[in-house]
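Reviewers asked in the last cycle whether our approach scales beyond single polypeptides. To address this, we selected a multi-component target totalling 549 residues and predicted its structure end to end. The input consisted of the following lines:
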Amino acid sequence: MAVAEVRVRQEKVKKFEEFVDQRLKLDLVSAIAQRDKVFQQQKTFLDLKRNIENLEKNGVTSMRSMVNLGSEVYMQAEVSDTRHIFVDIGLGFHVEFTWQEALQFISVREARLARQIDEYTHLIASIKAQIKLVCEGIRELLQLPAE
Amino acid sequence: MAAAARKGTVTPLGAVFSPEETRRAVARVAEAVADRRTELGRLQGFVADNAALVSLVQRLPDELSHDIMVPFGGAAFFPGRLIHTNELMVLLGEGYYVERSAKQTTEILHRRGMELEAQVEAMKATISDLEAEAKFFESTATEASEGLVEIREEYDEDTEINSSTLEASSSASGMSEKEREHARIMARLDELEMEEKDAGSTSEEDGEDDADDEEDAGPSEEDEEEGNILGHDNDHHNASFGASFSESGGNDQSHQSAQLKSALKKPGGREILKGGSFAPSASTPHLAFPGQTSIINSGIQLPTKNAASFQDENRHAVGPSKSLPLPQGPKHSSSILEVSSDSTTSHDRKIISSGQKAFTGSIIEHDDNIATLQPSKSDALQNPVTSSSRPVSRFKMQKGGR
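The resulting structure, written as structure tokens, was:
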């Protein structure tokens, strides 16, 4: 009787542990990776905003830069007209904006990215909570004292 | 032989390598191979990138400027153009850049490409190594599952020597022992004969017939020359020399050769005694026995007799055949064939044949042993010594037979 009960309990503990290891932890890792990607995007758009504001402030109409050809080999490039800028709007599309239009788009985009980050943060928190819950369940099954 | 059965151990391969473990090993190696393959793919990607960049760098200076979209941060572009198309900044590593022309840049990239190729080759070699390992594991697994067994016999030099000396001393001591030995040898001979019959091709049987005929002729001639010289000597020597070799019938050749080597060192004066005319005999282990050397010396003074001295070896070899009637015939056939075929005689041939017989000659009293010796010993000797086709073919036949 008691032996069977112990075995059932052990089976349950094993199942819980498998769920934590093979499901929840993997979900957590992928969610964190996705959130990091969004953080990256947010940073690039933040940089772009700052750069455009700089151009605006200094009234730059032409500039020179270095273009990476690959394998860290650079060549000089010249931009004769900086008033028009092509911005990545996602899915490989680029739209030609003026500086003002670009700044508007970037603010919209930043808001959206911030919302995405919030979502991912919540997702991560809930996964962590689930992991904690299952761990508590295992502790109860093993009748260990609470910490 | 009985000794082998006593010492040998038989282990089923399945017991040593459990099928499960080998399967796991195969899986692990396969995993390693997969890892290496992805790494190889990465490297090959680098190689392709490098080649593309080389062609790009070579093409760019063709024009003064190129219209491009100039990246501005990670997410934006300006329409612009490349200028100064023959000036490139190349990263050397650790944050150091150097300004190079297109041609110089191409050279740098070529050198990088060669390095990458070397890495790719190394990776391929590693993969092939791992694959060979995997194949080995797989074959081991299948062999184990098929119930293959491993037969192992330890070779312990000390025990071998002990047993051999024991045998020798005992055989030298008593006549009854000798008779027993004789009986044993006869049994062995019969056994060998049976083996030969089983394996015998028609050609071999022909050879044996010839051998028998000539055996009769051979000894008689040699006897005239040599019989008296050696006849009496044999009697004292076998006790001492035969003893050292008595074990040879059943034991490892390596052991024998070791003994031979040690024996070779003993007689300091031997070479002097024999002189230049004996040079070919260096290959004949016969010389290893100082006692016999002295016999030859005393008996044969003339250089022309050298051939005779070799013949006496033959005679020894043949001699036993008198006491051991038929079964021995076939065993001797190869060497005797040679001797008798040109009993008109060229010396070299005889030397060669004596080389084959060298061991049999040295085993003087142990006529019985010769028989057992013959198949193993003379074969091994024939191989290096003989140039004539006959013994070689016979060697092959015997090998096949066994």
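Confidence is low (pLDDT under 50) at residues 1-5, 202-393 of chain B. We regard this as preliminary and will revisit it once experimental data from Aim 1 are available.
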